[in-house]
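hi got a favour to ask and not much time before my train. below you get a single protein, a line of residues and a line of whole numbers that encode the local backbone shape. could you go over both lines and see whether the tokens make sense for that sequence. a few lines back from you is plenty, here it is:
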Amino acid sequence: MPHRLDEPVALDDLLLYRLSRLLATAGSMVIRLCEGRFGITRREWRVLALLAQHPGLMSSQLAERVQLDRARTSRAVTSLVAKQLVLRQAGEADRRQARLALTPAGRELYRELFPLVSAIHRDLLGVLDARQRDTLHTALERMQAKAESLVAMADLPKADRRRGGRARRTMG
């Protein structure tokens, strides 16, 4: 008998919906930590964490790595610069290209917040044994690769959220 993941019949059977619900539920704890205790947004946390791992990224590289458009990435970086958590160093050849790095205050915030986010991660994965975690890891890697290849091959219109999520055809 096919599993409902194989043959979805309702919204609750769709993988992306279930992952979205998991992210919304568990992610709310991360958002509360970020905003309530540390005064940064979830997007700013992603930028901060990535710069902790890869100091000196160019702003365009950062946008790609955090999977945000350049405008949202720029807003997050600008906010982190204003909070004195990130340093933006303009390039010598092209001043529009900036290298980004954490300030000492940014590194300290990361050192305080990362263990708290890691604890949530461990608690979530604690319901799985080691074999199940290995299987999940492999499955996530394979699904990410498949998603990237689907996006590369897709011939879909870009979303336009200002017009209701898709381009409307004009009646004529």
